[in-house]
Amino acid sequence: MARRELKPINYVAYGLNDILGAGSMAVISGWILFFYTTFCGLSAVQAASIFAIARILDAVASPLLGHISDGLGNTRIGRRFGRRRVFLIFSIPLLPSFALMWVSGQHYLYYLVTYVFFELVYAAVIIPYETLAAEMTDDYKKKAKLAGARILTGQMSAILAGILPAWIVSAVGGKESASTFLIMGIIFSVLFMIVVFTVWMFTWERDLDEVGEQELTKGEGWTLSGSMKALYTNLLSTLKIRAFRLHLGMYLGGYISQDVFNAVFTYFVVFAIGGSVVIASEMMAVTYVAQLFAVAVAIPMVMRFGPSPSYRVAVSLYIIAIISLVAMYATTDNFNFVWLVVGVVIAGLGRGALNYIPWNTYNYMADVDQIVTARRREGSFAGVMTFIRKATQAFAVMSVGIILEFGGFVSNAETQNSQAISTIVMMMAIGPVLVLLFGFFVSTKFRLSKETHEVLMNEIEHFKAGHTKPTSPENQAIVEDLSGFSYKALWGNNTVGAVQQDGTASGRTHNANV
């Protein structure tokens, strides 16, 4: 069956979902810890514990959603409504739960329940959504454009997340209050409902006849009892794919650095350099504007030079920006607005590319997995990605809260002592730079590009035609590097994702490269 042709409306609709994906994460990472400790009476440790508890629950929920999505095509619901997009339509009425997180004056349990509930709704949308690029096309360039549409839209929503508090403060008379964040939560909730419906309308997934029996995750693994037995064997098996492991290293380097930076930045502006919430909001918006420009540049840059070299340029820019912001605090006693703007612009240029590159390369991970397993497991990879994204973000924000508490930070205080300020500055300087350097190192090992992906897809077709020998020694070396397996262990001749009735792995061992 011929694939449907991607039109501009499909690229736009697909990209719009990152108003939820990146927009909600930008709001949470940038403001939720500050909101909890400033307007809700929670200590930094109490606020941090909310993220920790949510991640424990998410450790089951997010991967399970991806795993069930892969096998839903074997059910009556999946055959009628699809195995991916059905999650989107059923999640729309639950998206206003985002606004409930921003009600002040409640007790700890209220904030825990509302945060956890929204995270589960978020997962129910994002995990199936993250499979759609691979479902809609196999073409390298089209997948890159879909990733670009997604990240560009995400940056625009992040700009809104940055500037909206300042706009609301101005609209309600110039006084910062908890209502600022509640209004922001309501606005984003309405946007989330609109965009998820739009995505559902203008995207599609592979026809089940096109997927084929051999490419579906099937059998006992899709049922609830079977899923729980097979789930972690299947999900952990995604980490056996070498390209995916390296991809995760680059992804975490780029995103954890931003999570720490975002969580600390408002404190840095307000308490370390003498700014205000409004200035912090405006600077976050400036950062996201620069990121939007950087994504537009990164798309053709990655196509020409490849993801790895582009990633290293982005890391270098971001590190320069962080050093310049810390130097501003260290070398001047007065608030320097121009220096601050220059620093966040450079940071935004690096961050924009760091946002785009991992999500561009992610779209090809199921292809690498297919040559190993002879199956399509987009849902499993989406489940792992969503869990790791939320887990690492929560860990970053949680760590900031704990370190603030033990560093002398006092909740609800208008000023902080020198110990607390030093703690804020040290977190800004050390945390992001360390993980950025880690990502830089990993990128030197990552060799997926337009050229190597073309070789990969040709070898997949070679296997489908019944061949067992590589088309050339050069192509053999490429697919072995991407997969981490010897050529003779590819196309299902391994234990990756294989599960017995008792849920344990079966079959023969594989020959994986480190």
UniProtKB/TrEMBL annotation:
This is MFS transporter. The chain crosses the membrane at residues 12-36, 42-65, 86-103, 109-129, 149-169, 181-202, 260-279, 285-306, 313-331, 337-357, 394-413, 419-442. The keyword Ribonucleoprotein does not apply. Belongs to the sodium:galactoside symporter (TC 2.A.2) family. It comes from Alteromonas confluentis. Gene3D superfamilies: MFS general substrate transporter like domains. PANTHER family: MAJOR FACILITATOR SUPERFAMILY (MFS) PROFILE DOMAIN-CONTAINING PROTEIN (PTHR11328:SF24), MAJOR FACILITATOR SUPERFAMILY DOMAIN-CONTAINING PROTEIN (PTHR11328). One of its GO terms (cellular component) is plasma membrane. Residues 10-447 form the Major facilitator superfamily (MFS) profile domain. One of its GO terms (molecular function) is symporter activity. Keywords: Membrane, Transmembrane, Transmembrane helix. InterPro entries: MFS_2, MFS_dom, MFS_trans_sf.
